[in-house]
TrEMBL record:
Gene3D superfamilies: P-loop containing nucleotide triphosphate hydrolases (3.40.50.300), Peptide chain release factor 3, domain III (3.30.70.3280). InterPro entries: EF-G-like_DII, EFG_III/V, G_TR_CS, P-loop_NTPase, PrfC, RF3_C, RF3_dom_3_sf, RF3_GTP-bd. Increases the formation of ribosomal termination complexes and stimulates activities of RF-1 and RF-2. It binds guanine nucleotides and has strong preference for UGA stop codons. It may interact directly with the ribosome. The stimulation of RF-1 and RF-2 is significantly reduced by GTP and GDP, but not by GMP. The keyword Protein biosynthesis applies. It comes from the Bacteria. Its main location: cytoplasm. GO terms for biological process: regulation of translational termination. The keyword Secreted does not apply. Pfam families: EF-G_D2, GTP_EFTU, RF3_C. This is Peptide chain release factor 3. It comes from Marinobacter vinifirmus. Belongs to the TRAFAC class translation factor GTPase superfamily. Classic translation factor GTPase family. PrfC subfamily. PANTHER family: PEPTIDE CHAIN RELEASE FACTOR RF3. It is found in: Cytoplasm.
Length: 526
């Protein structure tokens, strides 16, 4: 195997999807702990200890106790190199989350075992379905009173339409949580509470029939034997092919807070999750082991380091390798650029990357020339596809306090929309600026950033817009007519694409019926 093939074979790039509060941040910390990246995992968001989790960077996020940013962490585990892409859990930043899911090869779904499948998880699973991303499942919070584990798996199968293959099975729950039985290894791993911050020796009992088990957990042992028999009969066996096709998920039980079970999941991840996968471009499919470098921008982030007001463009490397000082073609602007000081993300600390390979993420300093969805190649003119914008659901008119700064405002908004921080619509018939967001918090972020980065003070006013769709039509004449007859409802977005803004859903439906040749899109490709 060539060096590149070996490096690619080592990599596992994944993200965590979950409903807020299911435990994503806590799991991230434990995962890093196992990756030996942090000696003692920081407590989530400093709520208890004042120590901030390493993945939280922005001031706002500290204040509000939510993740605004997407960060990247790389760590070694089980002889492999794992890239974990953190996704903002708060629903207000779901667009970032969606785009991050285009940059991973597998996902870990975390479920609060007391609550089961929640609304946000359903939405995120829909997004992973677009690419049939393989899913691992962690049933969290077994140290609490949870729902019946069989019922939980049934719910995942019914609601999310994915078969469940239990890899571990819980013994008791809440105060009576004793540990898990590993179905594939035929061993019981015993849980001790109060060990949340360290990696400890776990007591392992080999074999479900071992008398040692009866000694250790008493009457739970015979219940467990009965239950496992039932579970084996009633559930799916793990099947690698079905997992890779996104049709079956291996299920692990544990408690992130108690630091129990996360390692079993990681073992599964490095053993089964796919190595960096090929990606499609408008020309051809690109394989990770191709020598030529290629990658796409899935996220642009500002203010990571308050010392430097820089913006970082996160690039998923699709093929080849990065090394410092290399040149790459910036396809959209048709120029070769030099990557002089890209960043890598070893356990949340930004470092200068010497080398990175397909499957890794690098961060490029962006001085306004890089946009979401941009492709970099070794010279080939091609563009990676499938990095979408989502139609916003919330709209406000934005207005300046000082009307002389109109140019500044427009520039700021367009740049922020190129980053994906927000979307902007400029109606054709007047000079309004309409800001569209997927979540309400985006509005606050935009005003704060306009003030600090563009020195403009802006305020919002309500506006009567219910939804927006990007419109296209293969017949230019019909599109012209559509624009003329709907002057009050057409607008250009930040990238000058035509959109229809509808005051009500009924209005949108009527427009769609009236203009069957015009296509209304809920997402727009970058
Ligand atoms: P996120 O919103 O998905 O990132 O969830 P967090 O990791 O912030 O967790 C939400 C809350 O659940 C926090 O108060 C955690 O301490 C708590 N939590 C996370 N995992 C567990 C667990 O295994 N058991 C219990 N009892 N609480 C947990």
């Amino acid at each position: 195997m060539s060096n590149l093939s070996q490096e690619v074979a080592k990599r596992r790039t994944f993200a965590i999807i979950s409903h807020p509060d299911a435990g994503k941040t806590t799991i991230t910390e434990k995962v890093l702990l196992f990756g030996q990246a942090l000696q003692k995992a920081g407590t989530v968001k400093g709520k208890k200890s004042g120590q901030h989790a390493k993945s939280d960077w922005m001031e706002m996020e500290k204040e509000r106790g939510i993740s605004v940013t997407t960060s990247v962490m790389q760590f070694p585990y089980g002889g492999k190199l794992v890239n974990l892409l953190d996704t903002p859990g708060h629903e207000d930043f779901s667009e970032d989350t969606y785009r991050t899911l285009t940059a991973v090869d597998s996902c870990l779904m975390v479920i609060d075992s007391a609550k089961g499948v929640e609304e946000r998880t359903i939405k995120l699973m829909e997004v992973t379905r677009l690419r049939d991303t393989p899913i691992l499942t962690f049933m969290n919070k077994l140290d609490r009173d949870t729902r019946d584990p069989i019922e939980l798996m049934d719910e995942v199968e019914d609601v999310l339409k994915i078969a469940c293959a239990p890899i571990t099975w819980p013994i008791g729950m809440g105060k009576g949580f004793k540990g898990v039985y590993h179905l594939l290894r035929d061993e019981v791993i015993l849980y001790q509470s109060g060990q949340g911050h360290t990696i400890q020796e776990k007591r392992i009992i080999k074999g479900l029939d071992s008398p040692e088990l009866d000694e250790a957990i008493g009457s739970y042992a015979s219940d467990l034997r009965d239950e496992i028999e039932l579970v084996k009969g009633a559930s799916h066996e793990f099947d690698q092919e079905a997992f890779l096709a996104g049709e079956l998920t291996p299920v692990f039980f544990g408690t992130a807070l108690g630091n129990f079970g996360v390692d079993h999941m990681l073992d599964g991840l490095v053993e089964w999750a796919p190595t960096p996968q090929p990606r499609e471009t408008d020309q051809r499919v690109v394989q990770p082991t191709e020598d030529g470098f290629s990658g796409f921008v899935f996220k642009i982030q500002a203010n990571m380091d308050p010392q430097h007001r820089d913006r970082i463009a996160f690039v998923r490397i699709v093929s080849g390798s990065y090394n410092q000082g290399m040149k790459a073609r910036h396809v959209r602007i048709g120029k070769d650029v030099r990557f002089s000081d890209a960043l890598t993300f070893m356990a949340g600390d930004r470092e200068h990357a010497e080398e990175a390979f397909a499957g890794d993420i690098i961060g490029l300093h962006n001085h306004g020339t890089i946009q979401l969805g941009d492709t970099f190649t070794a010279g080939e003119d091609m563009k990676f596809t499938g990095i979408p914008n989502f139609a916003p659901e919330l709209f406000r008119r934005i207005r300046l306090k000082d009307p002389l700064k109109a140019k500044q405002l427009q520039k700021g908004l367009i740049q922020l929309s190129e980053e994906g921080a927000v979307q902007v619509f400029r109606p054709m018939r007047n000079n309004d600026l309409i800001v569209g967001a997927v979540g309400v918090l985006q509005f606050d972020v935009v005003v704060a950033r306009l003030k600090s980065e563009y020195k403009v003070e802006a305020i919002y006013e309500p506006i009567n817009v219910a939804t927006a769709r990007w419109v296209t039509c293969s017949d230019d004449r019909k599109l012209d007519e559509f624009q003329r007859k709907n002057q009050d409802n057409v607008a250009l977005d930040g990238a000058d694409r035509l959109a229809y803004i509808a005051p009500t859903m009924v209005n949108l439906n009527l427009a769609q019926e009236r203009y069957p040749d015009v296509e209304f899109h809920k997402t727009r490709e970058h």
